[in-house]
Design goal:
The protein is of the alpha+beta class and about 650 residues long. The chain folds into four domains: about 5-135, Beta-Lactamase (2-Layer Sandwich); about 145-395, PPM-type phosphatase domain (Phosphatase 2c, domain 1, 4-Layer Sandwich), CATH 3.60.40.10; about 405-530, Heat Shock Protein 90, CATH 3.30.565.10; about 550-645, 2-Layer Sandwich (Transcription Regulator spoIIAA), CATH 3.30.750. Helix content is about 35%, strand content about 30%. The protein has a six-stranded antiparallel sheet, sandwiched between helices. A hairpin with a 4-residue loop joins strand 19 and strand 20 (about 470-480). The longest helix is centred in the last third of the chain and has 22 residues, at about 430-455. The chain is globular and about 95 Å long.
């Protein structure tokens, strides 16, 4: 070992070296021993972390909020292996020492093992670069892009697009189970894999969960995957018979070479009592994560892959209320640089931390949603991935409260019920399209009560909704008024559209009339989103317009001058707001004598009263030889409604 004066001759004066270390523009810290005690930290490190660095303090005491974020585990791994590791853009949650508020940062981290000349304890050099601004800029750009599915469809090749089209776009919304799924495709420079997932509601309220993997990649694997998924879905749907369903899939695998050796995990969950029956046909076994964070794997059922000649064997388990059943593909296990035992332990720990909301806190998300998203993010971010990654989770919950509202039938009741029903549906976990459809249908029925049941006078109005075991929502709108037959339509006007639109939006509408009043019953099967993740950012890209300040205010915004003039409508067009819109259209078109473009991209509700006002404005302009151009891009609320009532409109990008 060199003496201190010999070191000085080699590296320079010790005080000078310490000064240079402290003034380095990048954050550097040194830990020592298995407890990772902080023994050195420069000014940049102290500025980045926002807290003092007392010598000898273990990292776990300095940063207690990092528990569950895989930081301590990485330090332990580097210390034990003495092999350096680096992680790029590591998303962490820290605590502001002044305010106590949680802050999110993205860091590039290098962990370098080191053996000191002055002590026998091994050390570690940690180099940290804050890249939060760069990451935020990229995320901001992604938020301005199209939906993740559209964005990926343009960037990926036709094979990956085909595979995504074959996967389910929605998941059941059930009264006693919250279901979520995340699918991360293989890297763009590799062919798409054969992963699939499915969730099938059975007639008795149970739900069958399926995750499978076809050997190979490319078009053949995607086509084979679609055949197996269709067979299993069809055979499971009537009664959830796992053995019969897998036997049918086995017969397909015998005839289709690409299906041989495909692996499947099927689990049938009864949300009412928590019973589980499952089969792991050559597939990794499911795991269960409890609300407290404990997680465990279920034993394999003992079955082999499809067409292996081994008959399916079914095992049983139980899911407590609040716990999460997790099925997954081996893409999350077979990550670069991880052997099977290590990957299994990491998946178990991260799934438990996510279920307990102690990894990346997100109290607004369900435990199933957190497990699906955060498990993929935390594990894949550290290692990358070479195969598709699929995670499907079901959390057993208590039954949701029904919605029930009794009020007086006035124009303001439409606005109140719009908000109440939309909030209730969103709380159930329904996707945006279902929320819009049911909200529209109920709004039309309530509007009918307000303006027709009592001939404009106030009267009692009741709305009651429940979510049935099969995932169908049932909403009753009842009044004590008198049924009036629809008056004949006047030429050029749209009248009596309310009931037609309600039925078209909701899927099924039944009217019960009697001397004591009228009850309209809407039924609609709900679906929740299945998230297809973006390989660049891993997390899903939210749709544009989700940060609108006031969802009940109709804004009419004149766009920059251009031939012809244009306006944009943002918000709900209902019986309450359609009059204001009609007056503005009349003013801006000069009573129908001038051309005008109306951009309906931001319309959140387009009720029958709004449809009638738009149709009337179009007709008036046509009579005067001018043109009222309606613009409703594909996928918007306005595009759906205008297509339903056959009103001409343009669907390209916003003007």
């Amino acid at each position: 070992m060199e003496k201190p004066d010999e070191c000085d001759r080699v590296v320079g004066d010790a005080a000078f070296v310490r000064g240079v270390f402290d003034e380095l523009p990048i954050a550097v810290a040194v830990t020592q021993g298995p407890e990772h005690r902080l023994v050195a930290a420069n000014t940049a490190y102290r500025a980045l972390t926002g807290r003092p660095a007392p010598a000898g303090t273990p990292i776990r005491e300095l940063f207690p909020e990092l528990a569950g974020q895989q930081v301590y585990e990485l330090l332990d791994r580097v210390y034990a292996s003495e092999l350096p590791e680096a992680i790029r853009e590591w998303r962490m949650h820290l605590v502001d020492q002044e305010t106590g508020a949680a802050i999110e940062v993205s860091l590039n981290c290098h962990f370098l093992p080191h053996r000191s000349m002055t002590t026998t304890d091994r050390s570690m050099i940690v180099i940290v670069t804050d890249v939060s601004d760069r990451v935020r800029e990229r995320h901001a750009a992604q938020q301005r892009a199209e939906l993740a599915e559209q964005r990926y469809a343009r960037a990926a090749d036709v094979i990956a697009s085909l595979q995504r089209a074959l996967l389910p776009t929605g998941l059941p919304v059930l009264p006693r189970a919250r279901i979520a799924a995340s699918y991360l495709p293989a890297e763009v420079d590799t062919a798409a894999g054969g992963d699939w997932f499915d969730a099938i509601v059975l007639p008795d309220g149970r739900v069958a969960l399926v995750v499978g993997d076809v050997v190979g990649h490319g078009v053949a694997a995607s086509a084979t995957m679609s055949q197996l998924r269709a067979v299993l879905h069809d055979r499971l749907e009537p009664d959830g018979d796992i053995v019969a369903a897998l036997a049918a899939a086995d017969r397909v695998a015998d005839r289709v070479p690409g299906a041989r050796a495909a692996t499947v995990c099927v689990a049938v969950l009864d949300p009412a009592d928590g019973s589980i029956r499952y089969c792991t046909a050559g597939h990794p076994p499911p795991l269960i994560a409890s609300p407290g964070g404990a997680a465990r794997y279920l034993p394999p059922s003992g079955s082999g892959p499809l067409a292996s000649g081994r008959p399916p064997a079914v095992a049983a388990a139980h899911l407590d209320e609040g716990s999460v059943l997790v099925l997954y593909s081996d893409g999350i296990m077979e990550r670069p640089g991880r052997h099977h035992e290590q990957a299994s332990a990491e998946l178990l720990q991260v799934a438990g931390d996510a279920a307990a909301d102690r990894a990346l806190p997100d109290p607004e998300a369900t435990a199933a949603r957190r497990v699906c998203d955060q498990t993929v993010e935390l594990l894949v971010r550290a290692t990358g991935h070479i195969d598709d990654v699929t995670v499907l989770a079901a959390q057993r919950t208590g039954p949701p409260a029904p919605v029930h509202l009794e009020t007086v039938a006035t124009p303001d009741a439409v606005r109140v019920l719009h908000r109440t029903v939309a909030g209730w549906l969103a709380g159930l976990g329904a996707a945006g399209g279902d929320v819009v459809a049911v909200q529209h249908a109920v709004g039309e029925l309530v509007t009918n009560v307000v303006y027709h049941a009592y001939a404009g006078a106030p009267g009692p109005l009741a709305v009651a909704g429940t979510l049935r075991p099969d995932g169908t929502v049932r909403i009753e709108v009842s009044d004590r008024g008198r049924w009036r037959e629809r008056a004949p339509a006047i030429s050029g006007q749209y009248r009596g559209l309310g009931l037609v639109m309600a039925e078209a939006m909701a899927g099924h509408l039944r009217i019960e009339r009697g001397p004591g009043g009228t009850t309209a019953i809407v039924t609609h099967r709900l679906a929740g989103p299945a998230r297809l993740l973006d390989p660049d950012g891993i997390t899903p890209v939210p749709p544009p317009g989700t940060d609108r300040a006031d969802p009940e205010l109709l804004l009419i915004l004149e766009q920059p001058a251009g031939p012809p003039p244009a306006i944009r409508l943002d918000g709900p067009i209902t019986a309450l707001t359609s009059g204001m819109m009609a007056r503005e259209l009349q003013r801006l078109t000069g009573g129908g004598t001038r051309d005008l473009t109306v951009d309906l991209t931001g319309v959140t509700v387009l009720a029958s009263a709004g449809v009638a006002a738009l149709q009337q404005a179009v007709a008036v302009c046509r009579e005067h030889g001018s043109h009222l151009r309606l613009h409703a891009p594909s996928g918007t609320v306005a595009q759906h409604v205008l297509s339903l009532v056959a009103i001409a409109h343009e669907t390209g990008k916003s003007p």
